[in-house]
């Protein structure tokens, strides 16, 4: 088994942390840009893409600041959304942490780029 590599990405998003947070931690918000469908049962979120499903548990959340989902079927891998605001410019950034196999890093980055482009479109930013 190959070990996963941690990837950190940052995107500037033109909206308030509160509006952004709502798109990161609710089934309806995540369905708008992240997955075809999202089902929530307690802390477990089932993400559906083109017929395949993956389940993650929301293991960390701080209102308007942070959401982490840990994959149920993959130990020690998760994806995390962290919202920051630059004190000088007031720019809101979305920092994403994810994991990928070494040979899939570029593909994973590209996937996030397209997902975040969709998120920005949904947010009108």
Automatic annotation (TrEMBL):
Transmembrane stretches, start-end: none
Highest taxon of source: Bacteria
Database matches in Pfam families: START_2 (PF19569)
InterPro entries named in the record: START-like_dom_sf (IPR023393), START_2 (IPR045736)
Coiled-coil regions listed in the entry: none
Limits of the START-like domain: 1-124
Protein name per Swiss-Prot or TrEMBL: SRPBCC domain-containing protein
Annotated organism of origin: Draconibacterium halophilum
Organism placement in taxonomy: Bacteria, Pseudomonadati, Bacteroidota, Bacteroidia, Marinilabiliales
């Amino acid at each position: 088994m190959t070990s996963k590599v941690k990837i950190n990405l940052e995107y500037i998003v033109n909206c308030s942390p509160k509006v952004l947070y709502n798109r990161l931690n609710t089934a309806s918000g995540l369905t708008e840009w992240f997955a075809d469908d999202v089902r929530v049962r307690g802390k477990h979120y089932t993400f559906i893409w083109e017929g395949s499903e993956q389940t993650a548990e929301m293991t960390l959340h701080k209102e308007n600041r942070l959401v982490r989902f840990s994959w149920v079927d993959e130990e020690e891998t998760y994806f995390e959304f962290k919202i920051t605001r630059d004190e000088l410019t007031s720019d809101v950034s979305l920092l994403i942490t994810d994991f990928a196999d070494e040979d899939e890093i570029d593909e994973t980055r590209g996937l996030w780029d397209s997902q975040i482009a969709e998120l920005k479109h949904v947010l009108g930013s």
